[in-house]
Structures are given as structure tokens and as C-alpha cells.
Amino acid sequence: MPKPEKVNVALVGGGIMSATLATFLKLLDPSMKLTIFERLDEVALESSNPWNNAGTGHAALCELNYMPDSKDGSLPSPAKAIQINEQFQQSRQFWSYLVEKKILGDPRSFIHATPHMTFVRGDKDVDYLERRSKVLKSEPLFSGFEFTTDHKQIAKWAPLLISGRGPKEKIAATRIDSGTDVDFGAITRQLVSHLAKQGVKTQTSSEVVGVRRIPDGWHLTVKDTKTGEKRYVLADKVFVGAGGWALKLLQKARIPEAKGYGLFPVSGSFLQTTNPALVAKHKAKVYSQASVGAPPMSVPHLDTRVVDGQASLLFGPFAGAVPKFLKFGSLLDLPKTIRPSNVIPYLSVAVRNLSLVKYLVGELLKSKEAQFESLRDFAPEAKPEDWKLIVAGQRAQVIKRDPKGGGTLQFGTEVVASADGTIAGLLGASPGASTSVHIMLDVLQRCFADEYPGWQNSLKKMIPTIGQEINADKKLAAEVLKRTAKALKL
Ligand SMILES: Cc1cc2nc3c(=O)[nH]c(=O)nc-3n(C[C@H](O)[C@H](O)[C@H](O)COP(=O)(O)OP(=O)(O)OC[C@H]3O[C@@H](n4cnc5c(N)ncnc54)[C@H](O)[C@@H]3O)c2cc1C
């Protein structure tokens, strides 16, 4: 039997989360021995791949689900939108630091300034968008927020939305310049390549198939996906950055904290065009309102994307019901996670969310023509010959046991860690990659509680506003936006 490899931290999964955590750890303690295990042949082939996600730098500038309407028509609360924006500012600051230290390359290889817009139709949504904009306009991190119902103005901002639209249709839009388009796959690959120079091995085609607690840490069984050979790893700590498969591994580790969780998978696809004439006419990420019954992360949007220096437009996502937890996962992913502790949460979420399940199945069965009609709601003159369908990543949304023993479906992310902090994993998908820095700071605090206080000064150099509420200080908010825009060439 081969001798087990010994590491301080084993990171399962080669996506943006593991790459971010490993980068933090190596900067904070260069002596740490880390290894990343990835089951596929390369890193960033699942959700972090640029074609598997929408690449929106989620800062709540355009996504209505972070600031839902009030029930009584009063001004909606901006609290959640501000929180998401502040989390994204941590990412902007950390990426700026990494560019300065030459750990990340030219920012134009992974981030681009792209105005964020919201576009709505009909009296009810026009009224809501106006009230939303009234609130956000005065928030420092949303400075420069504009609202209009004027077709001509919207045509200036995003011509495709107006060409072919009746002049009497009631529409409205908001726009803000400080939005971004981000290639999370490029960030992942650049971080992994820098880590390799620091002695961090990334073992690809290596699937972690067993996780067992031992007296001083964890025993991992790793299978070579090409030869089927197994090898073993002894780790003081484990981070499960396995995307949709994180729950499976946390269950294998038998930590009580993972009990009661389940996952609700949602598949996705996008329409894409590379037609230069269309690409030249649309330079924005335009989000709209979710259709009735749709999950919040399935709001339709028409987006500029820049990947490997090439601009294209994406429209979608079209959600669907496929029971895999990863794009390259298995149809048995869902049934295999059912345990006595989560069977009731699974059942109660299925019963309470029948309309969502019905919606997803309906979306999956939607004809190409029907999908195209959704695009025409945005761009009335869109022609099928310009667009092709591409399959996006899977989202595995968190199902959590509620205090009454039932289950609730959540649309955010959640770090599940053992009480002793020796193993942690990330469940859920949204806002996801954009807030990877904030999420990994949470993992650092929970899994390195002894070391964290001594790391404060170093972390402050990487993220100068760490621990501060940026939006509460107008001057600070403006300074952070300006400084990171300069560093990231936005
Ligand atoms: C359709 C869609 C649109 C999205 N849009 C956005 C967006 O606009 N903005 C945004 O910020 N976020 C978006 N997200 C979310 C974002 O993509 C994810 O939050 C993020 O990529 C998750 O990163 P990760 O590292 O946790 O997972 P992943 O990138 O999925 O990486 C997990 C890795 O673990 C590997 N793995 C799994 N199990 C094992 C094992 N047992 N052993 C070894 N390796 C294993 C997998 O192969 C995979 O490479 C979107 C997601 C989807 C699906």
C-alpha cells in the first residue's frame, strides 16, 4: 500500500473557492503544506468556468432579488443589497492586492467594467423600479444610479432593448456604471498557477472518494479517475470546495453539523451570440424580473461577456430540472444524499415548492421557439440564426431542516463546518463566486480560530476595509470604488 501523503490542509475541488482559500492560506502562512484535489482533468471546469456561469460581479446593482418589493408599496429596504455590495467590495480589494503583488495578471484577463442595468415592463414593475431607484440613489456604494422611463434614453443605454419595440409600451430601466463582468475561471486558473510556484500541488483527475476522521485530523481516500488506483492522504484540516458535491463529502465525513441538509438542483442553459454587429450594440448586463414561480436566481438577463479577450452576448439562464449536483455529476446525486435526517426536509420542500418543481419541468420542456420568445421580450428584433444554446453549470440550492422539523429552500450560500473547525464545506450557489473572498474569510475565522487574530494585520493589507461597513461612510465608499477601479483597470 502506498505511504499516505501528509498535508496541513487538503482542499477538495479546483474551483474559485478552493483557489481563493489556498491563496489566503499561503499568503498568511507560507510554511503551510496544502494540496488541491480535482476530479476532472483541469481546474475550473464546473461552475467556476466562464461558460457555466453568467460572470456577473454580483453587487446588487441590477439584480432585483436582493431588494424585493415591499408588500405595501412603500420604499423597499436596501439592507440585503448593501450587504451583497459590501461583500463584493472585499473581492474587488483582494483582487486589486493580488494584481499589485503580480499573483493575478493583467486585470483585463479576468474583469471588465460593464454597466449594470435593470429593465422592466408594465405599470407594477415600473413603479417598483422607480421606488427601488429612489432608495439606492442615496446609498454611497450605489452612487451614479440612474432611472428612466424614456424609450430614447434606454435606446442610448442599450439599443437592442428598444429596436422594434412599440413606442407606447410602458417600460423603465436603471443603469449604473460601476458594474463588472468577471471571468471566475480565469481567476481560478491564475491563482492555481501561482500556488504551484509556491509549492501547492493541484492533483487533477483525482477524486476524493472517502473522508474519515482520525485522532489528529482526517484520512482521505483519493481515486485516480484514469487508472482507478487509490491513494491516501492524512490532513490536519479539510476544505470541501467541491461545489454541488460538497454535501456528499460532508455526509461521508459524518459530522453532525451536516445533518438535516439536502440540495435542490437547478440546471441551466444560455443563448449565446458572437455576431459582431449585435455585440457592438449591447455593452451592459441587463437584468429583469423573474417570471411567476421562477426561482430568484433564474431571472432573465441579457449580458455582455468577455472571455479570453472575446466579447459575446449571453441571454438566460433557462432553468430546468435535472437531478445532478454538478454538470459532470450523476443522475443519482440527489437520491444518494437522502438520509434519515434529511428525508423530511426533502419531502417538505418538494411539497411546499410544487409550483417551483412544475416551473422547472415546464422550462426544461420548453420548445426552442418558446425560449426564443423570452429573448424577444428583451430584444424584440432578435433572430434565431444569430443565437446558439449552450449548457451552463448546475446550481445546487440548500435545503435546510427548520426548527419545526420540516425543510426550507434557501437561495444563498452556507458554510457548514465541524465544531472543532477541522473540516468545512460550502453549500449553495448564489451570489457565489463574486463573494468568494467574503465566504473564504468566514472559513478562515471558523477553521483557523487560533491563528486568525494574529493574521489581522496581514489581512488588513489585503483588504483595507476588512471589518468596516463601507456603505456607512460616504468618503470611504467613494475611495474604495475609485482605488479598486484604478487597480483593476475598470
Ligand atoms: C448558471 C449559473 C450562473 C451563475 N452565475 C453567477 C454569476 O453571474 N456571478 C457569480 O458570482 N456567481 C454565479 N454563479 C455561481 C458561481 O458559479 C459559483 O458560486 C462558483 O463558481 C462556485 O465555485 P466552487 O469553487 O464552490 O465550485 P465549482 O467551480 O463547481 O468547483 C468545484 C470543483 O470540485 C470538483 N469536485 C467535486 N467533487 C470532488 C471530489 N470528490 N474530489 C475532487 N474534486 C471534486 C468539481 O469537479 C469542481 O471542479 C452561477 C452559477 C451557475 C450554475
Class from helix and strand fractions: alpha+beta
- Average pLDDT, rounded to a whole number, is 94
Count the DSSP helices.
Answer: 14
Strand content: 25-35%
Gyration radius (Cα, Å) is 22 Å
Provide the low-confidence segments as ranges. Answer: none
- Overall geometry comes to globular
- CA distance, first residue to last residue: 53 Å
Proper CATH architecture: 3-Layer(bba) Sandwich
* Count of spatially separate domains: 1
Number of strands: 20
Percent helix: 25-40%
Q: Which fold name corresponds to the CATH topology? A: FAD/NAD(P)-binding domain
CATH homologous group name: FAD/NAD(P)-binding domain
Highest-level CATH class: Alpha Beta
Give every kind of bound small molecule, once each. Answer: flavin-adenine dinucleotide
Question: Describe the biggest sheet?
Answer: 10 strands, mixed
What would you say this structure looks like, in words?
With 490 residues, this protein is an alpha+beta fold. It has one domain: FAD/NAD(P)-binding domain. The protein is built from 14 helices and 20 strands. The strands form three sheets. Strands 4, 5, 6, 12, 13, 14, 15, 16, 17 and 18 form a ten-stranded mixed β-sheet that branches. Strands 1, 2, 8, 9, 10, 11, 19 and 20 form an eight-stranded mixed β-sheet that branches. Strands 3-7 form a two-stranded antiparallel ribbon. A hairpin with a 5-residue loop joins strand 17 (395-401) and strand 18 (407-410). The longest helix has 22 residues, at 79-100. It is globular and about 75 Å long. It binds flavin-adenine dinucleotide (FAD).
